[in-house]
Specification:
The chain contains no helices and 5 strands. By secondary structure, it is an all-beta fold. It has a domain of 28 residues. Bound molecules: zinc ion.
Length: 65
Amino acid sequence: MNEQPKTPDPEVIYTGKRRVSCDGGGGALGHPIVWYSLDDGEAECGYCDRKFIYRPEGEDAANSA
Ligand SMILES: [Zn+2]
């Protein structure tokens, strides 16, 4: 039998900005605020495993469907 460690799914956040900040959402799950630059198109938070993906058209195209 395989026992898989139960890990929460990392949150994926799309942003149109080249720089993002993450504080883990605050509260008990929070962490000191850190900034990431999405020069490579994406970045992963080293604290809470959130993934940030740079998508410049994301916000404007939200209502186009
Ligand atoms: Zn984080």
